[in-house]
Amino acid sequence: MTPALKIEHLNKNFGKRQILHDICFETYPGEVFGFLGPNGAGKTTTIKIAVGLLRLESGDIQIGGTSVNKNFEKAMAQIGGIVENPELYKHLTGLQNLRQYARMRGGVDEKRIQEVVEIVGLKNRINDKVSKYSLGMRQRLGVAQAILHKPKLLILDEPTNGLDPAGIKELRDILKNLAHKENICVIVSSHLMSEMELMCDRVGIIVNGKLISVHSVEEMISSSNGKKQQYIINVSDCDKALEALDFIEPADKLICDDEHIGVFLSRDHIKDELYDITARIVTRGIKLGTVSPVENKKLEDVFIELTKSGGNQIG
Amino acid sequence: MGKFLRLIKNEYIKIFRKVSTWVILALFAVCAVGYPFMAKFIEWQMSQYDSYRSDYTILDDYKNDIERLKDVKTEGWEQEVERLQYFIDNKLTDGWKWEAASNMFEVKNDDGAAYSLDESQRAKVVSDYENEIKNSDWKGFLQTTHDLYDYDLSVVSDTEKASHQELYKYLMDNEIEPDEDNWQYSVANQLCGTKLSIAEMDASKAAGEAIDVNEYSKLMNNKLLYEYRLANNVEYDISEHENLENPNDFDFWSVFTSTGSLVSLIGLITIIIAGGIVSSEFSQGTIKFLLINPVKRWKILMSKYATSISLGYALIAVLYILSCLMSMIIFGASNLDASYLSVVDGAVKELPGFIYVLKIYLLSSTSMVVMATLGFAISSLLRSSALAIGISVMAMFGGNTILLIMQQFGLDWGRYLIFANTNLASIMSGNSLFSGQTVTSALCVIGVHMVIFLLTAWDGFTRREV
């Protein structure tokens, strides 16, 4: 499959400072790719180079197999995007703004514009001036503008900024829909890890201008969590309960406090072991309260673990 | 090409959806419409002033003069009183009758110092003039005056006498009434005056004196023009009614030609548009959404430039039509088929009036284009509308001051400055600030500057990291 976006050996300097170090990655049609990194890591710089706002100094960028250097207009015709804030023409209405972009791209008729307006849910306010829009509404208009010409690659820099929870969910559904049903490649950058976890199929993490990992979300979380899952059990007598669970290695069981013990169970046969544990406790006459799994590590924890090496200073 | 036109359409929409644009255009429309009204107002004010000098008061003046003369009794006062009384009796204030009466008294009171006439000849001239005034016989007046030159002692040379007599002979031959309102008479009169001036200058030249070469060639041109008009029966020449110098002369053409000065106002508007068209995208933050489109940057830049300049010319077209209509409404649609006469290489050329005014407008637009380009370059290089507009407006309106200062200090290289070359109209008419400037050299200087400005804009915009 031809990658929707292929970045090869991308380097970028601002003056003497090297901002990007040899970035290489590919994204494919049909996936939502999350681009993560702390402030100043180079996310926006990478995106800006990809959409042609910054000059490409070394390396190559191909969009749908077309090199940006060789055929700029053809490459850019396949991209839609929002970079940084959704600053649109404030003195025009939402519809007039969309018509501006439609005219520059070609192949977008009035019907498509109406369709896009409906997708982003701005139908009732599209004839208002953008100066009267809230940040969330401008964000929606930005998305409308980005998907207007049915791009094969959609690049959104912090698209959930300013959206309300319902808006975030809507956007997530829109983007997932575009990727999984219409086979578009969506690249999203964000600081909101919980969002990214819900939205993305794969994520790339960039720190200090270096791409340190590209994995699917599940891969990343499970590799970090290890093979065992911890459970907390509420019992009336902790010592007795531990004794009863003699089939568990001592290293995998502990007393948390007066009423709780903790056990680490192998992910492969959690169910069977749980049945066994509850049966053993109850048959010994120990009172059993709740059995609850300890929450998994989230993308956020993984992200912080992966990026903490740089300390708290902006790189 | 279609895509480029769509880009221009985008720019026009962005400009015309702004309230500030309409405010500026409204001010401009007020100026364009108000200009002919202003001219009418000045004309009305001057006519108020002129009404002092009606026939009635001139005759009153004569009466006062008589009272005074009777009082002080200076030498020859009786003759003077007789003369003035004659004017009053016949109600003569101007025109050929007044001239005839003046001549008549001059001859009558002459003691042989002014005219070489004997007693009987003198009596005949006086009675002839008297009869002619009584019978309104202007043909007779022409003949009598023509013949009188033979005896006029104040005429120093044969050429002078010949040119005066030629005028009266011409008027007689063509049956032209010597009335100020008769255009043929006034043109013939002016031709006579011009010929006399030329003869005078010829005489000074022959005597080895220095003469004003410009003045001489101007006289020669005027002579050609007057002769052409008489020969081709051209009653109205726009070159005589150009600009608003004399309020008595305000008419459609003088007002319409002078509205060319409003083109500098359009220059101002064009600078404001061109100076903001690139930098406003940066200040609004919309530049990122503009450049993310599948359009090469130089095309976006050129569409913005084309928009600024074409808007300037669209406004010039609006000004032309508006001024034409307003001048016509206020000053009347007379002499619409008139031409502008000029002398080119010794031959008289007729340029239809409407084309002549268009030419004025287009020549004035040079400065607009150059300064708008300068503003455009600064705007895309520094991304600051204020700087772009400020510098360009200063260059447009302050350039002449700089040149005058340079001229004072004898800095001749000022001729290569852009300000010294944008006023094509004055360069064309030979009134340039620095001697020896030609239209070709001006166009070269303009061309070099335009290339520099556009390359600056190009470089600043296409290589910009956003």
Q: What is the topological layout?
A:
The complex is a heterodimer of chains A (315) and B (466).
Chain A: E1 5-14, E2 17-27, E3 32-36, H1 43-50, E4 58-63, E5 66-67, H2 72-76, E6 79-82, H3 94-105, H4 110-119, H5 135-147, E7 153-157, H6 165-180, E8 185-189, H7 193-199, E9 202-207, E10 210-216, H8 217-225, E11 228-235, H9 238-244, E12 253-255, E13 260-266, H10 270-283, E14 288-293, H11 299-307
Parallel strand pairs in A: 3-8, 3-9, 6-7, 7-8
Antiparallel strand pairs in A: 1-2, 1-4, 4-5, 9-10, 11-13, 11-14, 12-13
Helix pairs in contact in A: 4-5
Chain B: H1 2-16, H2 19-50, H3 55-72, H4 77-90, H5 95-108, H6 119-135, H7 138-148, H8 158-173, H9 183-206, H10 213-232, H11 252-258, H12 263-277, H13 279-284, H14 287-291, H15 297-331, E1 339-344, E2 347-352, H16 353-382, H17 385-408, H18 419-422, H19 424-428, H20 439-462
Antiparallel strand pairs in B: 1-2
Helix pairs in contact in B: 1-15, 2-15, 3-4, 4-5, 5-6, 6-7, 7-8, 8-9, 9-10, 11-15, 12-15, 12-16, 12-17, 15-16, 16-17, 16-20
What can you tell me about this protein's structure?
The complex is a heterodimer of chains A (315) and B (466). With 315 residues, chain A is α/β, with parallel strands linked by helices. Helix content of chain A is 35%, strand content 27%. Chain A contains eleven helices and 14 strands. In chain A, strands 6-7-8-3-9-10 form a six-stranded mixed sheet, sandwiched between helices. Chain A has a four-stranded antiparallel sheet with strand order 2-1-4-5. A four-stranded antiparallel sheet of chain A has the order 12-13-11-14, with helices on one face. In chain A, helix 4 (110-119) packs across helix 5. The longest helix of chain A has 16 residues, at 165-180. By secondary structure, chain B is an all-alpha fold. Chain B folds into two domains: 2-48 and 258-462, no CATH class; 95-179, no CATH class. Helices cover 72% and strands 3% of the residues of chain B. Chain B has helices at residues 2-16, 19-50, 55-72, 77-90, 95-108, 119-135, 138-148, 158-173, 183-206, 213-232, 252-258, 263-277, 279-284, 287-291, 297-331, 353-382, 385-408, 419-422, 424-428, 439-462, and strands at 339-344, 347-352. In chain B, helix 12 runs parallel beside helix 16. The mean pLDDT of chain B is 88. The interface between A and B is medium-sized, with 32 and 24 residues.
